[in-house]
Design goal:
The complex is a heterodimer. Chain A is mainly β. Chain A contains no helices and eleven strands. The mean pLDDT of chain B is about 95. The chains are: A mainly beta, B mainly beta.
Chain lengths: ~110, ~110
């Protein structure tokens, strides 16, 4: 029973490029969450999605960041025109249903911006 | 403002030396408190979920307890493989699943 899958595991981008991070939730899970962990900081909520809907994006920067969870395929976190401050570990989590359900995390994507 | 505070920041234990980690929160109307462990370079691994004061959960050498203001993670007779950062997270009220994490407690268990 595969867990949450994220790819790539490591991503290197130059300033100004775009970064696309992918997340496939656990089988049977329809809720996806993205969190960011900056160096020496704790995990911070970014966005919560269900299939084809953004439910809560209150933690996501207003500019350059977007997220989607299409009907088919993985959830995508997209960062346009990356800057050095975007360097961080980005984690995806999934849960089966209600807000009180446990969120299970993937291994993360480590983004380095040169 | 909702806050989650973990203490201590770091803990060094001898193998077999039991101890407790603390997670205090100021969230009103707790809907759920979660404990995870995180190894370097990896994602958080789920340990426990607690929903109401007085609840306790146990797994191998770990036991989590919950009161109205805080939660404790007790590590009994730890082994070196228990070395990790332990994270506490609270489900924020009026949210659709937004977790607020504490900064974590880094535990090192030496043989």
């Amino acid at each position: 029973n595969a867990g949450v899958m994220q790819n790539p595991r490591h991503l290197v981008r130059r300033r100004g490029q775009e970064a696309r991070l992918r997340c496939s939730p656990m089988k049977g899970h329809s809720h996806v969450y993205w969190y960011r962990q900056l160096p020496e900081e704790g995990l911070k909520f970014m966005v919560y999605l269900q299939k084809e809907n953004i439910i809560d994006e209150s933690g996501m920067p207003k500019e350059r960041f977007s997220a989607e969870f299409p009907k088919e395929g993985p959830s995508i976190l997209r960062i346009q025109q990356v800057v050095r401050g975007d360097s961080a570990a980005y984690f995806c989590a999934s849960s089966p249903g209600t807000a009180e359900d446990t969120q299970y995390f993937g291994p993360g994507t480590r983004l380095t911006v040169l | 403002e909702d806050q989650v505070t973990q203490s201590p920041e770091a803990l060094r234990l001898q193998e077999g030396e039991s101890s407790s980690l603390n997670c205090s929160y100021t969230v009103s109307g707790l809907r759920g408190l979660f404990w995870y462990r995180q190894d370097p370079g990896k994602g958080p691994e789920f340990l426990f979920t607690l929903y109401s004061a007085g609840e306790e959960k146990e797994k191998e050498r770990l036991k989590a307890t919950l009161t109205k203001k805080e939660s404790f993670l007790h590590i009994t007779a730890p082994k070196p493989e228990d070395s990790a950062t332990y994270l506490c997270a609270v489900l924020l009220p009026d949210s659709w699943g937004k977790l607020q994490f504490g900064a974590g407690t880094q535990v090192v268990v030496t043989p």
